TrEMBL record:
Biased composition regions of type Basic and acidic residues, renumbered to the chain: 1-20
GO-annotated molecular function: unfolded protein binding
Residue ranges of domain CS in the record: 22-115
Example GO BP: protein folding
InterPro entries per the UniProt record, alphabetical: CS_dom, HSP20-like_chaperone, NudC_fam
One GO cellular component, as annotated: cytoplasm
Name under which the protein is recorded: Nuclear movement protein nudC
Organism taxonomic ancestry: Eukaryota, Fungi, Dikarya, Ascomycota, Pezizomycotina
Record Gene3D superfamilies: 2.60.40.790
One Pfam family, short name: CS
């Protein structure tokens, strides 16, 4: 992270560039903290046997048989192959959509892209939908909320929750022991 704050115009330009890069991809993708969804359209007359979809632990290939794949590459993080699926669904206008669902191994990590050679998104700007956060069990949700809080604090140059807790304990101790000199104390 740079020390200087980016101004709103730079921020907007970065978002617009990122959006243009994502819009230019031959597929659409979205994610929750636990999974990735990828989709792209194909002609309506195609059946499952006309397609190639290979989901491996760290790679993905998908497209129409005999044509260059629509998406092919190394995944930035591992997926559970057995819990990842793909379906061919009818879409408006007589077309069909391939929907690929990837189940993340690490449920506490945002992906910057689906495959490593695709343009990245800025994951620090992701704000999970509260409904998705509420789907998590209490302990996982607490960890995710703490990670998000600490990430925001770091970006603003403020102490993380752990650093704040240590500072609060030291302050309380100092108040209880005014006779001790803490001027040179270092917290680690």
């Amino acid at each position: 992270m740079s020390d200087k704050e980016s101004n709103p115009a730079e921020e907007a330009a970065a978002r617009a560039k990122e959006q243009a890069e994502q819009d230019a991809l031959p597929y659409k993708w979205s994610q929750t903290i636990g999974d990735i969804d990828v989709s792209f359209g194909v002609p309506g007359n195609l059946k499952g046997r006309d397609l190639v979809v290979e989901i491996k632990k760290t790679s993905l290939t998908a497209g129409i048989k005999g044509q260059p794949p629509v998406i092919k590459g190394t995944l930035p993080h591992a997926v559970h192959v057995d819990d990842s699926t793909w379906t061919l669904v009818p879409a408006p206008g007589g077309t069909k959509t391939i929907e690929i669902h990837l189940d993340k191994v690490n449920k506490l990590e945002w992906w910057q892209h689906v495959v490593t050679d695709a343009p990245k998104i800025d994951v620090s700007k992701i704000v999970p939908e509260n409904s998705k956060l509420s789907d998590l069990d209490g302990e996982t949700r607490g960890m995710v909320e703490k990670m998000m809080f600490d990430q925001r604090q770091k970006e603003m140059g403020k102490p993380t929750s752990d650093e704040q807790k240590k500072a609060d304990i030291l302050k309380k101790f100092q108040e209880q022991h005014p006779e001790m000199d803490f001027s040179n104390a270092k917290i680690s």
